[in-house]
Design goal:
About 10% of the residues lie in helices and about 35% in strands. By secondary structure, the chain is mainly β.
Length: about 110
Amino acid sequence: MILSTGDWRHVFRGGETYRIFGRLMTVPEGINLLIGEHGFTEEGSVQTFVIEGTSATILLDDATYREVGHWLPEEGAQGAAEGVDLGAKLDELADLIGRLPDFRGQ
């Protein structure tokens, strides 16, 4: 099942696929995702997503949903998830945007 939502209060669970603002997003296993603020950068309009329980944030271009940047807490800082490579999870998320989930293993 692919859930469709654009509600910023929703927690997007790891391993699940959602249609968020019209784009398919599969959240990597081991993290949950929250919609952050809409904003603007030099590159244009962006939407932010935050790994729940951390301050790890990915910035996605509103038009293409391509990653335009991300921010990670310093190692050992409050908001750094213990035992989770936040950078790798953000990279994985960016790679999974727009792709249908692989249901063969289920």
